[in-house]
Amino acid sequence: MEENRQELMDILEETRPDIDFEKEKALIDDELLDSFDIISIVSEINDAFDISINVNDLLPENFNSVEAILTLITRLQEE
């Protein structure tokens, strides 16, 4: 889990180095990430974790925080 977290942090920080992902808990709700950011992040996550995030998973609650994204990754890895 910790290695997933570090890999995710690397992806997020590479995509948007201006955001403190450790502190933010409303990345979508506060409009810190736009649709282009999400597409980029999803693509990187799919490749890095060998999962497939589909349209039904593209909900704000799945992307509002690092913890929410990690939960999504873990769920998809277990399916």
Quick recap of the structure?
By secondary structure, the protein is mainly α. Helix content is 58%, strand content 0%.
Can you give a write-up of this model?
The structure is a single chain. With 79 residues, this protein is mainly alpha-helical. It has a single domain, classed as ACP-like (Non-ribosomal Peptide Synthetase Peptidyl Carrier Protein, Chain A), CATH 1.10.1200. It contains four helices and no strands. It has helices at 2-15, 35-49, 60-63, 66-78. Helix 1 (2-15) runs antiparallel to helix 2. The longest helix is centred in the middle third of the chain and has 15 residues, at 35-49. The two termini are 16 Å apart. The mean pLDDT is 96.
Oligomeric nature of the chains? single chain
Please estimate the helix content.
Answer: 55-70%
Estimate the mean pLDDT confidence: 96
- CATH architecture annotation: Orthogonal Bundle
Strand content: under 5%
Gyration radius, in Å: 11 Å
What is the 3D shape?
globular
The parts where pLDDT drops under 50 for at least 5 residues are: none
How many domains, as an integer?
1
Query: What name does CATH use for the topology?
Result: Non-ribosomal Peptide Synthetase Peptidyl Carrier Protein, Chain A
Distance between the termini: 16 Å
In CATH, what is the homologous superfamily? ACP-like
Biggest sheet layout: none
Please write out the topology.
Layout: H1 2-15, H2 35-49, H3 60-63, H4 66-78
Helix pairs in contact: 1-2
